Amino acid sequence: xxxxALLSLADVHVSxxxxxxxxxxxxxxxxxxxxxxxxxxxxGKSTLLRVALGLQSPSHGKVTRRGKLTIGYVPQRVTIERTxxxxxxxxxxxxxxxxxxxxxxxxxxxxxxxxxxxxAQVHDLSGGEMQRVLLARxxxxxxxxxxxxxPVAGVDVTGQAEIYDLIGxxxxxxxxxVLMVSHDLHLVMAATDQVVCLNGHVCCAGTPQAVSRHPExxxxxxxxxxxxxxxxxxxxxxxxxxxxxxxxxxxxxxHGPGCSHG
Amino acid sequence: MSFETLRALLQGWAGAGYLxxxxxxxxxxxxxxxxxxxxxxxxxxGTLVVTKRLAFxxxxxxxxxxxxxxxxxxxxEPYTGPYxxxxxxxxxxxxxxxxMRNRTGLTSDTLIGVFLSxxxxxxxxLLLILATRVNIHIxxxxxxxxxxxxxxxxxxxxxxxxLGVTALTLPLFNRLLLAxxxxxxxxxxxxxxxxxxxxxxxLVAVVTVASVKIIGAxxxxxLLVIPAAAARVVSTSLRGFxxxxxxxxxxxxxxxxxxxxELTLPVPSGGAIILASGLLFxxxxxxxxxxxxxxx
Lengths: 262, 296
Prior knowledge:
The structure holds 2 protein chains of 2 kinds.
Chain A: E1 7-16, E2 19-29, E3 34-38, H1 45-53, E4 60-65, E5 71-74, H2 88-93, H3 102-111, H4 127-139, E6 145-149, H5 157-174, E7 177-181, H6 185-190, E8 194-199, E9 201-206, H7 208-213, H8 215-229, E10 238-241, E11 244-247
Parallel strand pairs in A: 3-7, 3-8, 5-6, 6-7
Antiparallel strand pairs in A: 1-2, 1-4, 8-9, 10-11
Helix pairs in contact in A: 3-4, 4-5
Chain B: H1 3-15, H2 26-51, H3 55-74, H4 83-104, H5 108-130, H6 137-144, H7 152-181, H8 183-188, H9 193-215, H10 222-234, H11 238-262, H12 269-295
Helix pairs in contact in B: 2-7, 2-9, 2-10, 2-11, 3-4, 3-5, 3-9, 4-5, 4-9, 6-9, 7-9, 10-11, 10-12, 11-12
């Protein structure tokens, strides 16, 4: 597993002065997996992401990236002044080392259902549209690893589901690994393969179902959140035969507490 | 081609009536050439200065030139072009501000406020000490710019700086822009953000120093800001923003150099250039307001 990982963190510590933000975090981001970091504010989520991106070097521990790893990064926000005239097309080609063909731009935008935005002004975009454009931007370089920092911040609920859906679709199509930080527990649990709950250290990790029932997770977020969380599952991934629950596809899902059918 | 040939050519055209009559004066041709070099470079670089929110910084570097001149005269450089001290002091000033900005955690406007005040205090004190040694009126030229004193050496320095800055900035334009939107994003994309920040402020400092002669230490920073601000207000595309800023800056420089002489107004070139760009800014703002009203 570790040999195949796109990115591995081994016993990573990060301290700022006397403040220990990360304490002994170890993670392996596999190819083709969606890996989500949740956790309370100040739990070190953003710092962990910065370490993974190589923007912050750990005070202790080791970060290993697969050779020539191409990372596509979707930041939480970009600050573009309202008065700066900038089209989506121009924004997408900033800092590309080559002249991107119009058809590739168009194709990449269409993958995030934003092809109609190509000639729009960046400051006219809604929160959800901007996130999709940022996602397209990250995809332009055909990354092996997609890193997203709270990809749905400032997006309404319908838009949020759509963006998680897009991230899953991109992973299915390109086989890239996905590492994201999320604040909202509800939607993200449905859209992820692995969840890490981070509070300085990895307090629990595993499948969304396992994490949401983990005592440490419940003590962090409270049982009320845990109860209302109702881990969503793709109903198509398992079926009920008599009293038996049969997973479909490899691995599939098990019958979760929120599963309302049969 | 030497400046002499170009000068003779333009003077000939002026004599024949193709160009304003004041251009029969060789010194004015020099000043105009300087303006034609400065305008596009300051205008183009200005778009990044405004986008990267470095307007206050570039004003401060301009003001630092005042202290650079004072130090230059103090150490015995010619008062008509103390380039050694000017370059050294302004580069040091710019580097120090950027260095401290990355380390103190203070916002850059606070930090620049501190450095600007201290630098001005130093410059003013030195100038008053110098007042007993040299004719203080000579310093007016340095402070507010003069069309009278631009010589071939100034033109050469300007030209070299302008070419260098253009060659470095144009290929990096997109990267600098991206870094200003989100430094982390640019870094992940392989842009060396910190190094480029240093490079950029050095370019601003170098251009500022090279332009001091014609615009003056007090006002030089303004030509990095006002034309770009005016262009920003009316442009609808990035390309338009860039080229309009260049056009505004060049137009201001030409108008500011020629008009006072043509109209025999005793106005320093620096003041006239900035007033011209100020008028363009006013026009741009009004036209945007008018457009808003018709659209609404």
